[in-house]
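Case study 2.
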Amino acid sequence: ANPVELAALITAFAATLFVIIFSFRTEHLRSMLPSAERLDSLMYKTAGVAFAGLAMLLITGAIWANESWGRYWGWDSKETGAFVAWLTYGGFLHARIARGMSGRRSAYFAVVAFLLVIFTYLGVSYLLPGLHSYA
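Prediction:
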């Protein structure tokens, strides 16, 4: 995984957790952390970086696959998982831009997208058969 993309994903996930925490009544914790609006903005911006990183991952992976196997896409479980995660982040960004989704609903959407990425990077290698299964 690209370190910049992974850092963006982790930052987006952390900001997401804070948005969820802020939606509950925790006055002492709120006074120590940035505002929910600022964290929501951070979540949105880092999700955009993660979306771009996943797009680059898919593009460079397809180019590499074509050089190695003579085809750009093989519907391998990891390829498909990465594509689904990319579509989920795209859906998240679309919901933010087109529908104005923010706050807790947006944070839950981002959690699902992040968990899909983690499953794609870690779970697919050990749980599903395919070219990218290393266990």
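The chain has five helices and no strands.
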